[in-house]
Amino acid sequence: MIEKIPEKKEKKVEYLELIYDLIFVYIIGRNNSLLHHIQDGFVDPGMLIAYILCTFAVIQIWNFTTYYINIYGRNSLRDHIFLFVNMFLLYFVAEGTREHWQDYQNQYHFAWGLILINIGIQYVIELRNYKGVPQHQRRIKRITIVLFTEALLIFAAIPVYNLTGQVIMAPVAILFGMAATSITGRNNCNDVVDFTHLSERAMLYVVFTFGEMIIAIASYFEGEITFNNLYFAAMAFLIVVGLFLSYGTIYDHIIDRERQTNGLSYMMMHVFLIFALNNITNSLEFMQNEEVQLIPKLSFLILSLVIYYTFLMLLGRYAKKRCKPTKKYYLLMIAVGISFVGLMFLCKDIMMLNIGITVIYVFAIFVMFYRFGKKMHRELSSN
């Protein structure tokens, strides 16, 4: 006999989810601070590795939480309690994100593991609610195994590091989580999420990341008003505006937010999108930092932009029907990107040209996205 499945209302982003996201805004700032330690003309290698690992770990936590809320969240008292517990634990993760992270790695890993256990327990509870519904039972069990196994790997990292003083298992845990989630997604390819809610949640995380970028470029507006200062401040601001407009165009005009999908690939793409945006934020800060050598900071900015636009283009697979991007469209995007890279290194010694070329590139891509979105809208309207 199939038990009655708890009825869920139409999914919408709740206020609690937005409050939950605010802790990630704080952590983004903590993560970015790791790149402020310069050594031999670029970021200290140890700090760079810590930054990459911490960034992916935090985005993964957010993904796991959001995916659960999307499928099984009911904005209930139980959901609130579990979410507040995770918020509390995330403070310990943020506190462990610092220059001397070795002194805090026990609390960082312990809090990180408990967060995944917390999310896993919520899935276990759902097994009872979906007793007799094989599709949900299979999905819940697979995701629970992923969460608990990754948590065990994280807990195991504590004694391993304490005994060896150098072996870090965080990359193993993160890569396992990403690989296992991808495999689970393929196994659950027929499962459907509320894609409208999921895409909105991803968009809001991107918006919060842009918020950190806006704060970071505030340094461009410091000091007396000169032509040079005004020029760089305007260029930095335009870069942020152009990046945001491109994402907004994709989200508002190209993505089919009512499509039937399990949403895992979409969320995975946003892991790298958000990672790239964090890198761009730091790149813009490096532009003013004379301690950072020219070629490393130029390369970091270029690579970050390429990653960002690569995954923006990949979001095209979620475009509205009959309006998928063509091969010609992708080739044009790639050609513009190659031209940008070439010009940046050709003019590497002239910072005013560098930042100007970046603005032109960012807005050229935006115009291409905008024109494609308008064309797609006309084609859909005519059908």
Report the span from N to C terminus: 46 Å
Instruction: Assign a percent range to the helix content.
Output: over 70%
Shape assignment: globular
Topology pattern, helix = H, strand = E: HEEHHHHHHHHHHH
Q: Return the CATH class of the largest domain.
A: Mainly Alpha
- Taken as a percent bin, the fraction of beta residues is under 5%
Number of domains: 2
Report on the biggest sheet.
2 strands, antiparallel
From the alpha carbons, calculate the radius of gyration and give it in angstroms: 22 Å
Poorly predicted runs: 1-8
Tell me the strand order in the biggest sheet: 1-2
Q: Write down the CATH topology of the largest domain.
A: I/LWEQ domain
* SSE class: mainly alpha
Q: Quickly give the CATH architecture of the largest domain.
A: Up-down Bundle
What does this structure look like?
The structure is a single chain. This protein has 12 helices and 2 strands; from the N terminus they run αββααααααααααα. The chain is an all-alpha fold. It has 2 domains: 15-187, no CATH class; 195-382, I/LWEQ domain (Up-down Bundle), CATH 1.20.1410. It is globular.
